[in-house]
Amino acid sequence: GQQLNQSPQSMFIQEGEDVSMNCTSSSIFNTWLWYKQDPGEGPVLLIALYKAGELTSNGRLTAQFGITRKDSFLNISASIPSDVGIYFCAGPSTMKTSYDKVIFGPGTSLSVIP
Amino acid sequence: NAGVTQTPKFQVLKTGQSMTLQCAQDMNHEYMSWYRQDPGMGLRLIHYSVGAGITDQGEVPNGYNVSRSTTEDFPLRLLSAAPSQTSVYFCASSPNRGAGNTIYFGEGSWLTVV
Question: Is any Cβ of chain A less than 8 angstroms from the Cβ of B61?
């Protein structure tokens, strides 16, 4: 089946720094999604991308849909303590037998040092 | 607004015991799913349903059963709990099948099998 890989696995940054993380796959996706999970809660959607090359912002967050459709990037500018959590990339499967399935990456854990 | 409600939030089981994780949504969503979250593994799809009376297997279905007798409810049953099923379980719902941009997650159920 399709798989998503995320890097880095974890990050420790100083408050105020910018953050970059990415998500890759060996197969194409037609939609890229970025979710954030706060400690002890379920994931919440941050940004959805629908077109190759698309660049979308949500406050201090910016995400890009890679041109090859096999990757996506998430940047966070001027990090603050509440940015702490696990960031997941995800996408609806493009395999004919799995159109109903949404695949999640393993996540990037972000820690912000005040 | 209740959204997606999961119960119980915490549960300890002995190996071989059975139990049911309850999930209910009040948004009239057709699509519901169960994920398990393990460190470094991200969210893995267990079972999903595209509507009442219809269920299908996800990535890791072994050891779990589901049913969808109503649109609102999607319980997850562990028939004979094993330590490998120690995990955090998330129920999710969406108005559209396979559209990850509209997935709403519950708060999670922490299960420990000893």
Answer: no
In the block, which residue shows the tokens 């940047």?
A: A75
Q: Does B50 touch chain A (CB under 8 A)?
A: yes
Q: What distances in angstroms separate CA A59 from CA A1, A75, A87, B14, B55, one per listed residue?
A: 34, 11, 16, 46, 38
- Residues in chain B with CB shorter than 8 Å from the CB of A105 are 42
Tens digit of each residue's pLDDT (9 = 90 or more) over A22-46: 999 988 988 899 999 998 899 999 9
Average pLDDT, chain B: 92
| Partner residue facing B42 (CB), from A100, A101, A106 | A106
DSSP B9: S
Give the strand order in the sheet containing A71-76: A5-7, A19-24, A71-76, A61-65, A55-58
**Amino acid in position B67:** S
Chain B interface test: which of A45, A88, A104 (most B C-beta within 10 Å): A104
